[in-house]
């Protein structure tokens, strides 16, 4: 689920909204049709490299939307990794390492879900009328392609995945899954790399996400083709 979403805010706007200490100097163009493997904005907290006991700082940067664990030998996977089920994320080899200290937020204006009736699939755009911005629980991982001894090292690639849960509230009428939406009061604990992540932390944010899911609004839109603000116009 949630294989498409929209983010139109600049890095500077996301930095202000998420109270970041730094915004990477990387391209974050607006898009109303973000799909897996594209570069997407991501919010992370980092411990200073030169001071492991120092206070974490918050960064807005970009990552490839489809997590690749560090031990993988290939960038692409035989199965999709742009979503991770919150119920089993602490058990899956692909994700459990990132859960410990590499947690993130994927910002979004809204996301798309398809309502299927028979053979007809109707896309809907889903938004939060109260906050106006989604903070979707995510995990990240740095990956680098293997290289021969003595060869030039390959570059590191930052990758990310979105956590999902059982749907509830208005969106349950069209789909049985939904992103785990983080209310503001749990951002810090979820992102804090000094907090060891486990299934109990995931369960906590899943429970907290209910308050967001209950207030969501959705409406049908035209089939997603290309990119641009027309994609989120009601039909």
Description:
There is one protein chain. The chain has 235 residues and is α+β, with helices and mostly antiparallel strands. The protein has a single domain, classed as SOS response associated peptidase-like (hypothetical protein yedk fold, Alpha-Beta Complex). 15% of the residues lie in helices and 34% in strands. The protein has five helices and 13 strands. The chain has helices at 11-17, 93-101, 187-191, 199-208, 210-213; strands spanning 5-7, 22-23, 31-34, 39-46, 57-65, 83-85, 103-108, 110-117, 120-127, 134-144, 156-166, 177-179, 217-220. The strands form two sheets. A five-stranded antiparallel sheet has the order 3-1-8-9-13, with no helix packed on it. It has a five-stranded mixed barrel with strand order 4-5-11-10-7. A hairpin with a 2-residue loop joins strand 8 and strand 9. The chain is globular.
Q: Approximately how much beta-strand content do the residues carry?
A: 25-35%
> Any idea of the CATH class?
Alpha Beta
Straight-line N-to-C gap: 22 Å
**Biggest sheet record:** 5 strands, antiparallel
CATH topology grouping: hypothetical protein yedk fold
Second-tier CATH architecture: Alpha-Beta Complex
Shape estimate: globular
Tally of distinct domains: 1
Could you state the order of secondary-structure elements as H and E?
Answer: EHEEEEEHEEEEEEHHHE
Q: How many strands?
A: 13
Nearest-angstrom radius of gyration? 18 Å
Number of helices: 5
Mean pLDDT: 95
Which regions are unreliable across 5 or more consecutive residues at pLDDT < 50? none
**Which strand order does the major sheet show?**
3-1-8-9-13
Structural class: alpha+beta
CATH superfamily: SOS response associated peptidase-like
Percent range for helical residues? 10-25%
């Amino acid at each position: 689920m949630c294989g498409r979403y929209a983010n139109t805010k600049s890095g500077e706007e996301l930095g202000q909204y998420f109270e970041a200490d730094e915004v990477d100097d990387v391209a974050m163009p607006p898009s109303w049709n973000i799909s897996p493997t594209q570069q997407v904005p991501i919010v992370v907290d980092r411990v200073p490299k030169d001071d492991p006991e120092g206070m974490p700082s918050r960064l807005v940067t970009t990552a490839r939307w489809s997590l690749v664990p560090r031990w993988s030998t290939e960038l692409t996977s035989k199965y999709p990794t742009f979503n991770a089920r919150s119920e089993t994320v602490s058990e899956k080899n692909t994700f459990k390492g990132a859960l410990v200290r590499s947690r993130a937020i994927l910002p979004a204006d809204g996301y798309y879900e398809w309502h299927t009736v028979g053979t007809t699939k109707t896309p809907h755009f889903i938004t939060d009328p109260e906050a106006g911005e989604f903070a979707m629980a995510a995990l990240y991982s740095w990956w680098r392609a293997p290289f021969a001894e003595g060869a030039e090292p390959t570059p590191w690639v930052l990758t990310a995945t979105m956590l999902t849960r059982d749907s509830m509230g208005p969106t349950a009428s069209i789909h049985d899954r939904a992103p785990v939406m983080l209310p503001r009061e749990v951002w810090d604990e979820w992102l804090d790399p000094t907090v060891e992540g486990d299934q109990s932390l995931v369960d906590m944010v899943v429970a907290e996400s209910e308050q967001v899911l209950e207030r969501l609004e959705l409406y049908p839109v035209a089939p997603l083709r290309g990119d641009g603000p027309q994609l989120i116009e009601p039909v």
